[in-house]
Design brief:
252 residues; Rossmann fold; four-stranded parallel beta sheet; 11 strands
């Protein structure tokens, strides 16, 4: 069985039985599956398809456990502990808070992270080249935000002031450490707007952006923003602000 959960917050575990991917008999075990924090059906289906290509079919040779935290960090430690109690073979997590919870819950079960923004800075891995321990996976590298800033400047004539939506806990994140000097190098005024990722917080953030007279807006790469991507896009349209986003699913 495997477990996975993310910053939405959601957890999954899977149990595999019968024949393995190579067609050989395999002993019953648990195998992971991840469903994106945002609850995106498209992402989940894509994950299922990739698993099936490897010979893992849910309900046939994989059983999946799901856990949900409903956009809150508080339940994450218990979700992780629950999957550990189930003795899953692998835990798949999305978002830094979820990875931290999983790492604290076990030092022996392999953990695969998805979209952790700064795994080295957060203490999840020793280095990107040599993670060490029981955590590996993918990172949302901060330099991509720098590239997005460059694209935004090219797309918006005479751009001077850019609004950057960020979460309260991101004030010292790797993303900001990289994007702040990048904005200076591009001769852009970066207006950082701290916000909660909910309807009230985002509406207030966009009003603040207009008050600060920003001519375009972007967000940091963060699972809570991804979960609220539809609202963010709608607010950008409502306030007539050109925007660039961390993932293509914002506009799909």
């Amino acid at each position: 069985m495997a477990g996975a959960f993310c910053n939405r917050r959601r957890a999954h575990g899977v149990r595999g039985e019968g024949r393995g991917a190579a067609g050989r008999e395999s002993s019953p075990h648990r195998f992971p599956r991840w469903k994106h924090c945002s609850g995106s059906a498209a992402l989940l289906e894509a994950f299922r398809q990739e698993l099936s290509k490897l010979g893992w079919i849910e309900g046939k040779n994989i059983a999946i456990e799901y856990r949900f935290g409903e956009q809150k960090n508080e339940p994450l430690p218990e979700l992780a502990a629950d999957l550990v109690r189930l003795k899953v073979d692998l835990i798949v997590v999305a978002g830094t808070p979820s990875v931290l919870a999983a790492k604290k819950a076990t030092t022996t079960i392999p953990i695969v992270m998805v979209s952790a923004t700064d795994p080295v800075g957060a203490g999840l891995v020793a280095s990107l080249a040599r993670p060490g321990g029981n955590v590996t996976g993918l990172s949302s590298l901060g330099e991509l935000n720098t590239k997005r800033l460059e694209i935004l400047k090219d797309a918006v004539p005479k751009l001077v002031r850019v609004g950057l939506l960020r979460l309260p806990e991101q004030s010292a994140s790797l993303q900001l450490k990289e994007i702040r000097p990048a904005a200076q190098a591009l001769k852009l005024k970066l207006e950082e707007i701290e916000t909660q990722p909910d309807a009230k917080g985002l509406e207030s953030a966009f009003q603040t952006a207009k008050q600060k007279q920003v001519a375009a807006i972007m967000t940091t790469a963060a699972s809570p923003f991804f979960a609220e991507r539809k609202r963010i896009v709608e607010l950008a349209v409502k306030h007539r602000l050109p925007a660039i986003y961390p993932e293509k699913e914002f506009v799909d």
